[in-house]
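--- STAGE predict ---
source: upstream dedup step, 1 unique chain passed
mode: sequence only
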Amino acid sequence: MPAPKIVVVGSLNLDLVTGVDVWPAPGETRLGTSFAMIPGGKGANQAVAAARLGAEVSMVGRVGEDAFADTLLLNLANAGVSTDHVLKTPGASTGLAAITVCQGENSIVVVPGANHLLTVEDVEAAESVISRADILLLQNEIPLETALAARDLAVAHAVRVIFDPAPAPASKIPDRFWNVDLLTPNCSEASVLAEIDIQNRDDADRAAEVIHAKGASLVVMKLGDQGALWCEGGRPPIHVPAFPVKVVDSTAAGDAFTAALAVAWSEGRSPQEILRFACAAGGLAVTRAGAQPSLPTRAEVEQLSAAQ
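--- STAGE serialize ---
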């Protein structure tokens, strides 16, 4: 089977990661336990994750003209991701994310920098690579009009579109963005999109149906340690449980899941197989520290997803 062709239009960040034993309260200073600078950004994370899972991946995005830009570009190239459409932006900083990790959970402050300067024209310049893709991956860390342009271009070329609405949208999503092939929120994002407070599986089922009714052909909801939910209108939801793993750092686990979802879906697997593969990728990612260093290989994911 030929390698899936995946194009990611999205963000590239350098993650500044600090470990703490206890979350600091407002106005409080605490000593950190560790510090690292790690390549990240939801778009770049998903690109690297898909490449490690065997896909042929191209990245469309922007970085600044600073030392961080070369670090991110080299890291993508080393992972096998094409950076022909990642542009350097004079006068702009490369995107940064300040991440604090405490007992396996994280809080993140993102400074978009050049990511918010990615334009419709940049996407149009990448039409040749988008038109040849099996799947286009989009997130919510670039300007919405740019993401919409990418979505429209993919639709024009009959390329399937997966929209990962992360971080949760602060304002109403335009109607045509609902009309994607697959929408994959986590519980907090689904709560915002469906306007439902998700407290249990019944709430998650209901939220997925609401989101599907808004126009998404397929909704795959990430439920964290509860696994994932596949919702296709008119059919009973399919639930696959999470793999029991020891959580070290949840950074990029959702990105590992989404990339694995794209790879397995493009390979024509069944919904149960797709969710199991994606849950395995996300589960492995939480067992390691950092964003892109935590992303698993194809062999690792196949081994875990085959486990009983």
